[in-house]
Write a structure and sequence with these properties.
By secondary structure, chain A is an alpha+beta fold. Chain A has three domains: 16-111 and 169-245, Aldehyde Oxidoreductase, domain 3 (Alpha-Beta Complex), CATH 3.90.1170.50; 258-412 and 528-669, Aldehyde Oxidoreductase, domain 4; 418-523, Aldehyde oxidase/xanthine dehydrogenase, molybdopterin binding domain (Aldehyde Oxidoreductase, domain 4). Chain A is built from 17 helices and 25 strands. In chain A, helix 9 runs parallel beside helix 17 (638-655) and helix 13 (442-454) packs parallel to helix 14 (482-503). Chain B has helices at residues 22-29, 74-78, 85-92, 102-115, 121-127, 139-150; strands at residues 2-7, 10-15, 48-51, 54-57, 70-72. The longest helix of chain B is centred in the C-terminal third of the chain and has 14 residues, at 102-115. Classes of the chains: A alpha+beta (670), B alpha+beta (152).
């Protein structure tokens, strides 16, 4: 029996669109239909004239310190991307609200949209007052003068990809008796609470954020968006509950996509397969506005470019640039898949040049002992892991099928740690985690930890949705961090509860279960190399119907540390692998020459259906525990890191043409 | 306009706009929240129901078009004795992750059980091709439905 999933089959889930109140107002956002234009007239609805705020802060110091352009809640004077909120209307009838949206008049003076990294670098700034379109520059590693015999260069590109959770974004805001209550589909009730508090200037104590059942996220539900501010503001104004549910069309135009990264790289090495160095430039297309994550993305990619390898010389220049597209956000992996794709594709180039087996070249460049790269990335020696894996997936056989191979690492985003709370109530153990599960099956590791520490049976343990009034502080779920960080905090909270129980003489699990004890713990953590997991992925491609490349089979030999729940891990891996495969084949957010997103429907975004799934061969293994009491490593993003380079190589082996752009350019096949 | 729809054996009468979609009638008029809206364009199957025994996407139909037909939603599959076989297996094996697709896979899985013969992995993989799961990579869902069908 699984009480959590059972409710979805009985229609008893409570996703955000299932939350209703009497007298509720339905909010509709009127969006820009131009990618770059001056606003000549906006007539109707709530506009920037009445609600003139930016997403993070209106404070000068913030803007000076960070020095990037923050998205306004509603566009003022100019629109900088197709789908940017310009006005907002509402009605108590959902259909009438849509009608009302059509009555808002907007007139534009169109400007030339900047849509590529190349155009961004050579064009006038899209933001007035800036000297160019560069958001930020970074240098990671150390300049070097290579004297290597072999020097190869290539340009690689990964297109934008939409997170596309099956449930789109949504919020219900209800300002009542001086408090703003928010029900929201989110990865972090804390980022929503802190964001709304800062943007609207409300006292944090006057905001409660409740996480609804969350139908997937993949990065898209971590940040505060304009619609959340508008819904909250309107509820404060009208004193009525205000609901906003994103349409799929809005998700495509206005939810933050990921990737959109170009690299110009050079790899240096000797004639026997020893890599001397990697250098080059990485450009990230952050769209029309930036935030901390998107502006620092190039340095994060550069930091981990060497993956599991020992490469003594690294120098990467990184640039984030503005374009007239929706602002960039994290998408499953968020920088990790980019780094892996770039490095792995360069190693294949090098191995091919030397006529060596790509696996041999990879094994040759793994460190014998702990290695600190010039960027500061610290990795443990992993030769034993990969040598083992090569045997376990039977590479000798796969080679005959032209398999592509990738080696990779998964760096979990543990910094900042996480919180957990346990409350025993009516014979049930309720658990809240600072990272708000959207049911990547966190409940399975939660039940296991409670059972292990307190001896309480799994069916008495319930993982609750995020709630800022139950657990005041927390971070969020993303970056493959939850099993490590929230698991750690929960482990400590359970120990504290056990100690409390013992102090008052409660020793048996049954006694604890009858108590009304509670405990809370915040574990502040920092990345340790023992938390970084190793990934070996292999893919076999075929051409279907004489024209269409597909990935037929995929192998994953993944290190997960101490496995907390094998079925949860398996589902995380297969889910990530399919996303990674599809990103190589068809999945992309492209824009037309006017800056309008090309896909208009979910299927047109190229997502994977069941018939696109390869045959999975997943081997879950442990190459040592992380230095936490429960030993877990991350897993959520493993598949999206491992699958793209392996799949791209498998197709390359088949069509005998270099694959250096994602999604695959079908012209290569002709 | 006044319409009357039969959903899970119960008649629901309401005065609605002619343009009202079937999925909105199911969710907002009948109050059955298990059927979800994922894409509004028939791409995802989160809104799938059985209409006179056939799986249809209720976001692609007007409510008025469903008059005189028998509509079964995810709640109607469960019945009084709890979940049906497909739902029970999907739930117990934790084949889903976020749960948003529960209605779609319950409906199509039940249809497979009731209509398909010689069910195997490949057949299920093709039959569920109209329903999206963004989380799982489909493998655990296909395995679960296949196994339930084989044990029929």
């Amino acid at each position: 029996m699984n009480e959590r999933t059972e409710k979805f089959f009985k229609g008893k889930g409570s996703f955000v669109d299932d939350i209703n109140f009497p007298d509720m107002l339905y909010l509709e956002i009127v969006r820009s239909t131009k990618a770059h234009a001056k606003l000549l007239k906006v007539k109707g609805g709530l506009t920037a004239d009445a609600l003139d705020l930016t997403l993070v802060s209106t404070g000068e110091s913030y803007r000076k310190g960070k020095n990037y352009e923050v998205e306004p809640v509603l566009a003022k004077e100019k629109v900088l991307y197709y789908g940017q909120p310009v006005s907002a209307v509402y009605d108590k009838d959902k259909y009438k609200a849509k009608d009302l949206a059509e009555t808002v008049e907007i007139s534009y003076e169109e400007l030339k949209p900047i849509l590529t990294i190349e155009d961004s670098l050579s064009s006038e700034p899209i933001h007035e007052g800036r000297k160019d379109n560069i958001v930020s520059r970074f240098e990671v590693g150390k300049k070097f003068s290579p004297e290597s015999k072999i020097k190869l260069s290539d340009e690689l590109f990964m297109e934008r990809v939409l997170p596309n959770p099956l449930e789109t974004r949504g919020i219900v805001a209800f300002y009542n008796s001086g408090k703003l209550n928010v029900w929201i589909s989110t990865q972090s009730v804390y980022s929503i609470k802190n964001g709304l508090s800062r943007i609207l200037g409300l006292n944090p104590a006057d905001i409660n954020v409740y996480q609804t059942d969350t139908g997937g996220a993949f990065g898209s539900k971590s940040a505060v968006y304009p619609e959340y501010v508008i819904a909250s503001y309107l509820s404060i104004k009208t004193k009525k509950p205000v609901k906003w549910i994103e349409s799929r069309e809005e998700h495509i135009s206005s939810t933050r996509p990921g990737r959109g990264v170009k690299a110009q790289l050079k790899i240096y090495g000797d004639e026997k397969g020893k890599i001397d160095g990697i250098e080059g430039k990485i450009f990230v297309d952050v769209g029309a506005y930036a935030d901390d994550l998107s502006s620092t993305s190039p340095s994060w990619i550069g930091y981990q470019i060497t993956g599991p390898y020992m490469i003594e010389n690294v120098f990467i220049e990184g640039y984030s640039v503005y374009t007239n597209k929706a602002p960039l956000g994290p998408y499953r992996g968020a920088g990790r898949p980019e780094a892996a794709f770039f490095m792995e594709r360069m190693i294949d180039l090098y191995a091919d040049h030397l006529g060596l087996d790509p696996v041999d070249v990879r094994l040759k460049n793994l460190p014998e002992k702990e290695f600190i790269s010039p960027t500061g990335l610290k990795v443990l020696p992993s030769k034993a892991f990969f040598e083992d894996g090569i045997k376990k997936i039977n590479y000798a056989e796969l080679k005959k099928k032209n398999a592509g191979i990738s080696f990779g690492i998964l760096i979990p985003a543990v910094d900042g740690g996480e919180s957990a709370k346990i409350k025993v109530e009516n014979g049930t153990v309720k658990v809240w985690l600072g990272g708000n599960a959207h049911w990547q099956r966190h409940e399975l590791f939660v039940k296991r930890i409670i059972k292990e520490v307190l001896g309480i049976p799994e069916d008495k343990v319930v993982l609750m949705n995020g709630n800022t009034s139950e657990l005041e502080k927390g971070i969020g779920t993303w970056g493959s961090r939850s099993a490590i960080t929230a698991g750690y905090a929960l482990y400590k909270a359970a120990l504290a509860l056990k100690e409390k129980a013992e102090k008052i003489g409660l020793k048996e699990p049954q006694q604890v279960l009858s108590s009304e004890l509670s405990s809370e713990y915040y574990e502040n953590m920092q990345l340790d190399p023992s938390m970084i997991s190793f990934l070996l992925t292999a893919a076999v491609a075929e051409i279907e119907d004489g024209i269409k490349p597909v990935i037929k089979e995929i192998w994953a030999y993944y290190d997960v540390g101490e496995p907390l729940s094998l079925e949860a891990i398996y589902g995380q891996i297969t889910g990530g692998l399919l996303m990674g495969v599809q990103e190589v084949l068809t999945e992309a957010l492209k824009y037309d020459e006017n800056g309008k997103p090309v896909p208009e429907t979910l299927s047109a975004t190229g997502i994977a259906y069941s018939i696109n799934a390869p045959k999975y061969n997943v081997q879950i293994t442990s190459f040592g525990r992380s230095n936490t009491p429960h030993g877990a490593k991350g897993v959520g993003e493993a598949g999206t890191i491992g699958a793209p380079p392996a799949s791209a190589r498998a197709i390359e082996n088949l069509i005998k043409k270099r694959v250096n752009r994602l999604p695959l350019n079908l012209d290569l096949l002709t | 306009m006044k319409i009357k729809l039969n959903i899970n054996g119960t008649n629901y009468e309401s005065d609605v706009e002619p343009r009202m979609l079937l999925v909105d009638f199911i969710r907002d008029v009948a109050g059955l929240k298990g059927t979800h809206v994922g894409c509004e364009t028939g791409s995802c199957g989160s809104c799938m129901v059985l209409l006179d025994g056939m799986p249809v996407k209720s976001c692609l139909m007007l409510a008025v078009q469903a008059e005189g037909k028998k509509i079964i939603t995810v709640e109607g599959l469960s019945g009084k004795n709890g979940l049906n076989k497909v739902q029970k297996a999907l739930s117990e094996r934790k084949a889903l992750q976020c749960g948003f697709c529960a209605a779609g896979f319950s409906i199509i899985g039940t249809w497979i059980l009731d209509n398909e013969e010689n069910v195997d992995y490949q057949k299920v993989k093709e039959d569920i091709a109209g329903v999206v799961c963004r989380c799982s990579g489909y493998d655990q869902i296909i395995k679960t439905i296949t196994e339930v069908a084989k044990n029929e």
